[in-house]
Amino acid sequence: MEQGGVFFMSKIKNERTKAFREAFEKNSKQVAVQRGVVKNGIRTSAENVQAQIENAPVFSIDLATGKVANQKQSGRCWMFAALNTFRHKLLTSFQLKDFELSQNYTFFWDKYEKANYFYENILNTAEQPTTSREVTFLLQTPQQDGGQWDMIVSLFQKYGVVPKSVMPESSNSSNSRDLNNYLNKLLRKHATLLRQMVAEKASNEEIQANREAMLQEVYNLLAISLGTPPEVFDFEYRDDEKNYHLDQGLTPQSFYDQYIGVNLDDYVSIINAPTEDKPFMKSYTVDMLGNVVDGKQVKYLNLEMEDFKALAVKQLEEGESVWFGCDVGQSSTRDSGIMALNAYDIEDLFDVDLTMTKAERLDYGESLMTHAMVLTGVDMIDDQAKKWKVENSWGEKVGEKGFFVMSDEWMDEYTYQIVVRKEFLSPDQLAAFEATPTVLAPWDPMGALA
C-alpha cells in the first residue's frame, strides 16, 4: 500500500500462506521435484550433464604448466595465481619438474605490510567517528588473505620470491582462520590506541614510536605462526634430465632477478565492469585499497568484453599464461571443473527467473570478483574463443587434475579482470590506462579481493 509516496508494510496473512501451500501441493511436478531436492540437495539435483559434454577439456592453444598447486584452507588464490605464472616460466627455462615458489614467504610479507597499511588508513581517518562508513569499513576486516594483482606486484618488487623448499608451507598458511582471527584482534586493539593518541594530540614522533612497537608485535605474531622469512639461501635442484644444480648465497631479490626476470611494470590490469558509473576506455583505482604503503597503485582499465578477451587471446598465443579474476562460485561445478551458464538448471528446478545483466549483478550485490586463477589455454574455432582452460589452485582432486574448463559465455558474465602485457594494448587503450584514474569508493565491487 502506498500513501503520499510512502510505502507501508504489508504483513503476511495466514490465509494467504495456506493458499500458497495448497497451490504447491496441487502441483504434482513440484512435489516430485521436492522429493529429489530434499534428499539430494539443490546443486546435485540441478546439475546438467550437457555442460560437461559441451566443454570437453581439449584446446587449440594449450600451454605446458606442470601440476597444479593447492592453497588449502586459505584465501591466497591471487597469490598462488601470480606465483603460478612465474612457475610456468621456470619450468620451461630451467627444465624443472613439480617445482613451486614459496607461497608462505609471500604470505608473511603480505600480512606484515597489510598491518602497516591498516595503521596508515586508521591514522588518516582518525578524526572521523567510528560510525563513519570509512572507519566501519576498515574495522570490519583490518586485513584478510585476499588481494589484487598490483598488490602482489608491490610485494614481489620489495621482497622478491624464494623457492618453496626454502620456506615451505606452515599449518597456519594452509589453514589461515586462526591467524586471521588473532591478527585482526591485535590490529583492532592497535586502532584504539592510535585513534586515542590522535585525540589526545600526541606528537607525530610519539605516534610513530608506538606504531613501530605495534609492528614489532605483528612481526612476532607472524614469525611464530608462519616461520621466519629467509634472507640468504642456497638453491639446489635437479632438472628434468637429472643434472644437478647448486646456486649459493642467493637473496630473495637476486633469486627473482636471476630465475624469474619478469619486469612487472610491463603488465596492466584490465577489467570488464559494464555499470553506468564506469564508462569504458577509462582508468580506475580504489580508495584505501592496497598493502604496501607507497607501493604500486591498484589501477585498472575498463574495456568492453570483446576487447578484454582479445587481449587474453593475444597473450596466450604468445605462449604466456594470464592471471585473471572471476566469481568462481557462480554456475560452476567443483568436482568436474566446469564453469558454464548451463552447469545447473536452477531456474527449471524452482520454476523461477533469475536473469540479471552483468551490470545489475554488480550494482545489486549479486556478483563480484571472488577468486583468481590462471588462463593456460583457449579453444579457438573460426577465430572465435569457444572455451578456456583454467589452472586452479585447489589441488588435483577437483576438475581434470586441478584444471577447469570455462565456457566463453561464462567468461562474458562472471570474469572481471585479466592481467596482460601492455604491449598488447592499442595506443588508445594504453593512453586511457595511463590517464589519471577515477577514484572508486573502498566498498566498490571492483575493490573486491580475490
Automatic annotation (TrEMBL):
Protein's UniProt name: Aminopeptidase
Residues annotated as coiled-coil are: none
Family recorded in the similarity comment: Belongs to the peptidase C1 family.
UniProt keywords (A-Z) are:
Aminopeptidase, Hydrolase, Protease, Thiol protease
InterPro entries found in the cross-reference section: Papain-like_cys_pep_sf, Pept_cys_AS, Pept_his_AS, Peptidase_C1B
What is the native source organism of this protein? Enterococcus hermanniensis
Q: Which reaction does it catalyse?
A: Inactivates bleomycin B2 (a cytotoxic glycometallopeptide) by hydrolysis of a carboxyamide bond of beta-aminoalanine, but also shows general aminopeptidase activity. The specificity varies somewhat with source, but amino acid arylamides of Met, Leu and Ala are preferred
One biological process term from GO is: homocysteine catabolic process
Active site: residue positions: C77, H371, N392
- GO MF, any single term: cysteine-type aminopeptidase activity
GO cellular component terms listed in the entry, alphabetical order: cytoplasm
Q: Which Gene3D superfamilies match?
A: Cysteine proteinases (3.90.70.10)
What Pfam families is this protein classified in? Answer: Peptidase_C1_2
